[in-house]
Amino acid sequence: MTRYLALRVGQAVLVLWAAFTAGFVLLQLLPGDSILIKFQNPELGLSPDQIAEIRRLYGSDAPAIVRYVHTLLGFLHGDFGYSIDTGTPVLDRLAEGLPATAKLATLGFLVAVLIAVTIAFVSSYSRFAWIRGALLALPSLFVSVPTFWLGIVLIQVFSFQLKLVPVIGGTGFEQLILPVLTLAVPISAPLAQVLARSLDQVQAQPFVAVVAAKGASQRWILWRHVARNALLPTLTIAGVTFGELIAGSVVTETVFGRNGIGRLTEQAVAVQDTPVMLAIVVLSATVFVLVNLVVDLLYPVLDPRLAAKVGVTA
Amino acid sequence: MPRTRLRSTLRAGVAALATIGLLAACSANAASDAGDAGQPVYGGTLTYLEHQPPSCLYLPAAGFYPNGGVLNQLTDKLTWQDPKTLKIEPWIAKSWEINADATEYTFHLRDGVTFSDGSPLDAETVAANFDVYGLGNKELKLPVAEFVNNYARSEVIDKSTVKFHFNKPSPGFLQGTSVIGAGLVSKKTISLPYEEQCQLKNVVGSGPFTVANQVVDKEIDLVARKDYSWAPPSFAHQGRAYLDKIKIIVTPEDNVRVGALTSGQADYVRYVQAYDEATVKAAGYRIYAEPTRGVNNGLYLRPANSILQDVNVRKALQAGTDAKEVVETLFTDSYPVATSVLSKLAAGYVDLSAQLGYDPAKANSLLDQAGWVRGADGIREKGGRKLQLSVFVSGPQPLSKQTLELVAQQWTKIGVKLDVRQADSGTQAAALKDAEKTPLVHSMVGRADQDVIKSQFHTRNRDVLLSNDAQLDRLLEEQSALVDANARNAKVAEIQRYVVDQGYAIPLFEEPQVYGAAPYVHGVSFEAVARPSFYDVWLSKKDK
Amino acid sequence: MTAQSGIDVLQPTSPARTGLSLRLPPAGLMLAWLAIAVAVLWATVPGLFTGHDPINGVPAEKLQAPSAAHLFGTDALGRDLLARVVHGSARSLSGGFVAVAVGLVVGTLLGLLAGSVGGLLDELVMRVVDVLLAVPGLLLALTAIILLGAGTTNVAIAVGIGSVAAFARLTRSEVVRVRRTDYVEAAFGSGGRFFTVLRRHVLPNSLGPVVALAAVQFGSAILAISTFSFLGYGAKPPDPEWGLLIAEGRNYLATSWWLTTLPGLVVVLVVVAAGRISRSISREDR
């Protein structure tokens, strides 16, 4: 087990380094650069010589390999450099955005699980085929609607027409309702599909018939087994939907005018603020690696059957 | 074990859902009724929705409207330009003298003005401000400001008198002291390096509001300065601002801003799109379309481009563009059709509508003369090369993409293909200084002084044309050195004619800044280039 | 974002067995194929479905509600919306295909390599896939778009790159599963050459779930492309494309509902149809 743990941590570090390096190389290839974008702004009226001077001051005229080593060492010391767009330390910008996005993403994921469990459970339990069909068609519908469109429609209907929830002002909780829903709906879809299938499989298993014959109600059987069957896929999806949560938060934060890592990502890309982009790559890679590490380590705990073949992570 | 865990999860979930429903039902609020104007009242919070987050807040970069909306409330200027008469009036400077050839300006400052950190606004501080705006500061990475020309040095005469010296006549300087970028900041602020001056928390001004709180990229809360008592003397309202607090909230989605306004969640919004004006008005709200008094929204053709070097081609494109159709299709009465390079309200404007009419027949014959012959696909060709140009969609211009699509549609009728390109700012920045990659640009610039035309066209300013025309530069320099206002206006008229005759510009419309406000928001006012001032704003609504 | 429905990949035990157990009558499947067929016909012979010009409109007829003359109404420039939807299908469908092709080809090759060779190479490939998953897909795609330039095809390639990881993981686990089956063991045992066995036995038997994933990805790629239009990296104007129509029409939601709703419905139909077909494929596989 210790050896396995060491191996997994080693892999995690390797993935982090590779993500950093890939990010660095990719960002070098971009046309133009943030200094050009920022200082070529006609309002500032700078000549090309002056821009070159500024570039020198920012140290961005050094050879790529020097900057790579320099940046890598900086990251290792927790120094992510300065945002070229705002001049603030990148760490500050991340710290400003992270809590808001973490809250949005966590709640979004939890609500997604809630929606998925509700759909899967009610559809499996329902005696009416049409309810079942309708509920099971929902996930397909959920993934067929663009997130930004869903957000705008939710705002128009619930905030502007029905005036139920404000998007501007209001308490922190009120401000979270619609964004969380917007983020949760598309993520709930694959989860609902997996859960519904798990429940079907449970019902098809012989022991269910046995337990039922012994007089247990079907509801009891479902309750009994939904947990185990829900937990594993939910965990797995938690590890992988992380990227989706970030993508979803970009759109959600833009539509709802929230601050956070998503907006920061979009803005950093728009002005090619490379230090910020690189930090976001490393940040999200770190979270991804950690989440998956935890998930991998939890599998054997949750499902003894997996303990034997640990290490075979698809 | 899993069973209980699941059950409690489910129960918590159901409870959460129920709570959401309840809260949602409770928070439904009644729509506000319009109050009557009358005596201004003090107090209240204004919720103002901004389209984009502010960027770097170094004062000379304040021209960007999101920046201006904040900085206009935080800083005062030496002089005040009346947006109606465009006359320069006293503000922090109670009087001034200018020598005959406009190379020396002496300002006499008001006493008792303080910055929000308590430091005095004195001659030394003003000198320090303009030394940076006029000369820049390499060490601190501070660039020169565009509104100061030919600056040499400052001279502090006494505590409340400061004199500025110029290498060459600089008649635009007096107006330059009134623009948003010339906002005065404390000595501490102005001596910070560029990155520090960019940050809101470091901007210390003497204006009627100060920053109370900021959530980067989302919200800025301003509070009134209780001891403010140095509004421009010509204002009826003196003393502190009426409002207690302003919440500036960044809301990028156009329909969310407008919906929030008309559903009573916000009081005042910037950037109402043309197609939403009717919605806002129909809901009983007010539209303020403020002119920007500068170089019109239009297409600027670059003579260094290998196709556009032929003046006939440029003139043909000018004649083949129907600005009236653009305005009627995409915009509203708030956007007057352009009749010159400059706005009707700009100093030195001359009506050139006769030269700028839509005339496809003329366009076709000019292109025929220039040797461009229609190919099989209807697009003209010459020497195996297609008459094909490309233009970038310009983010800051309203409905730029749709405008360009419509122009492209108009140009197909004269056998010209216009590729409308959408690109990130990096790609655009890299291509901007190359006339082959960027043969024409969609832009405008607002400023209420004759120098605005120089800002747009001079090779050492924005140089939107990437001009290779020495005569144009010479004309612009002559203009900016003329001291007599009438002579200057005449020169500006000459430049407008020259730019139109050379086919450098295809003016489309006079671009306004369009704001929407609730009927209970009174005292809405703007500086000369349409940035909002909240000093006079008051709310008649009780609960705000 | 792109791997939205790539749930199959996520199952640690038997990734191939997904498929929503939606017991629609076969009529549902027929309708799904019909929807796809119509979309393909729109793309190939748009002239049969609309006589209007999708690029050059009549400015005087701007923002008209749906009517007999304009079934889907007109947009801000007076262009017929149905014409733009019909002519836009070629770009949207090919965008979906390109995105899937990139993900499918690159991802399947990586997965096949990792699963069949195993050992160090497997480890290496899977770490590369981890990196692809660890970097936010949207950031990756945006960077790719900036590098390649805007435009539907480039956006589609960027979206496809984002789904490489999903395909690679799925293919690898399928290959690993198939390799352990008796007949493959037998094929190797009876002296079959590595690549021959791979081609004859492993690949065909692993492909079912992968094809199902491809069908699902096709739908989510169309949606992803529309998200990039929303963020301002869409099709080259004035060309129509479904995602772009939805993204641009949203601004008119309060005043001209049809501009975003009708193209949105078309996309929903096609995506749901693709999902339905995907499920039928994975069920046949079972």
TrEMBL record, chain A:
Gene3D superfamilies, alphabetized: MetI-like
CDD domains: TM_PBP2
Coiled-coil ranges from the UniProt annotation: none
One Pfam short name: BPD_transp_1
Positions of the ABC transmembrane type-1 domain: 98-299
Topology of this chain in the membrane: Multi-pass membrane protein
Places the protein is found: Cell membrane
Record keywords: Cell membrane, Membrane, Transmembrane, Transmembrane helix, Transport
InterPro entries linked: MetI-like (IPR000515), MetI-like_sf (IPR035906)
Record has rRNA-binding as a keyword: no
Domain of life, per lineage: Bacteria
Keyword match Flavoprotein: no
Membrane spanning residue stretches: 12-30, 104-122, 134-156, 176-196, 230-256, 276-299
Record-stated family: Belongs to the binding-protein-dependent transport system permease family.
UniProt cross-references to PANTHER family, sorted A to Z: DIPEPTIDE TRANSPORT SYSTEM PERMEASE PROTEIN DPPB-RELATED
Name used for this protein in its record: ABC transporter permease
Organism name: Planosporangium thailandense
UniProtKB/TrEMBL annotation, chain B:
InterPro entries: ABC_transptr_sub-bd_KPN01854, Peptide/Ni-bd, SBP_5, SBP_5_dom
Record's keyword annotation contains Transport: yes
Keyword terms: Signal, Transport
Domain of life: Bacteria
Pfam families: SBP_bac_5
Signal peptide: 1-30
Entry annotated with the keyword NAD: no
Sequence ranges assigned to domain Solute-binding protein family in this UniProt record: 87-435
Family: Belongs to the bacterial solute-binding protein 5 family.
Official protein name in the record: TIGR04028 family ABC transporter substrate-binding protein
Species for this entry: Planosporangium thailandense
UniProtKB/TrEMBL annotation, chain C:
Location of the ABC transmembrane type-1 domain: 89-278
SUPFAM superfamilies: MetI-like (SSF161098)
Membrane topology value: Multi-pass membrane protein
CDD domains on file: TM_PBP2
Stored InterPro entries: BP-dependent_transpt_permease, MetI-like, MetI-like_sf
Transmembrane region(s): 27-49, 97-121, 128-149, 155-171, 210-235, 255-277
Keywords: Cell membrane, Membrane, Transmembrane, Transmembrane helix, Transport
Compartment(s): Cell membrane
Protein family: Belongs to the binding-protein-dependent transport system permease family.
Protein name as catalogued: ABC transporter permease
